[in-house]
Specification:
Blueprint lengths: L1 H5 L15 H31 L11 H6 L9 H14 L5 H27 L7 H22 L7 E3 L7 E3 L3 H20 L7 H18 L2 H7 L10 H19 L8 H18 L3 H7 L1 H20 L9 H7 L4 H21 L5
Antiparallel strand pairs: 1-2
Helix pairs in contact: 2-4, 2-10, 4-5, 4-10, 5-6, 5-11, 6-7, 6-11, 7-11, 7-13, 8-10, 8-11, 8-15, 11-12, 12-13, 12-15
Amino acid sequence: MFEHFLVPLSDHFQVLNVFRYITFRSGGAIVTALFVAFLMGDSTIAWLRKKQGKGQPIRTDGPQRHIVEKQGTPTMGGVLILVPAVIATLLWADLKNAYVWIVLLVTLAFGLLGFADDYLKVTKRSPDGVSGRMKLLVQFLVAVIATYAVMALEEPSLAGMVAVPFLKTVLIPLGWGFLLFGGLVIVGASNAVNLTDGLDGLAIVPVIIAALTFTLMAYLTGNIKFADYLQLHYVAGTGELAVFLGALVGAGLGFLWYNAPPAMVFMGDTGSLALGGALGAVAVAVKHEIVLAIVGGLFVMEAVSVIVQVASFKLTGKRVFKMAPIHHHFEQLGWKEPTIVIRFWIIAVVLALAGLATLKLR
């Protein structure tokens, strides 16, 4: 919005030229989202605590210490991420850019689904909210529509194509099958982040790291000179997603202030489904879907641990891990929560660097 109103005035006030630059507006989005998160943090948590009473229901089949240590902590803290991120995006992004609206609407739709899930859990005092089938149905519907919208915006030479990292000219043609592929990327990312959100600060920092990584990727992919130099597939208009991702980073940092151990609030499905969906939608838009699996490898590891655990138990009656997702496995091995969280953050940083390497190693 700032760009729309202030750039035309740059002929008279040259300093306003800075609003033309994505880098400046991305920085502005980070600071704005962080400020809004701090502004609404204490009052929002107090309101959630008052409305929820006993807080988020804790799984009885999870680690026993959670029942003691985390009981009474309110959930739905994802609103502390979504509201600041949306406000900052609307203020700093070019609202004529269709990619911004696609990713923003995916984020909000998944956030509303997560909010409904959290609301049912709190009101029913049960870890079970919206049924798994219903959640997947809504997620796939939103994801497929978003993927179709992205395909409609792309150049014909890129529509329905999957880019392969490390190989500069290789594109895998999926045609209309890309609708299913894009939907799987978005839904998979959303649920993988959701599974990772099990310890204080465990999910939000890797999300911030992934968002920062994709901020750079979106900016480079949407800049024809940098894309040509790095031999990336140029996707016109996607550079503006750096502003949205900047807003996500600022909001995530603000939320981390309150989610740092011991957490004052949990993001709940309101935050985790929305954040994963946002990362997946951005990856589809900038043609870096496979790179997302590298950068977000921590989320992939968490999701795979659950799949392996369930498959092994159904097929053999035996469990591979002491508990899934895998962060609970390490808890059962005796690792302290801060140890698990910080070591997983380190893994997230290493994977982000590996993902960035794909920009040059081609």
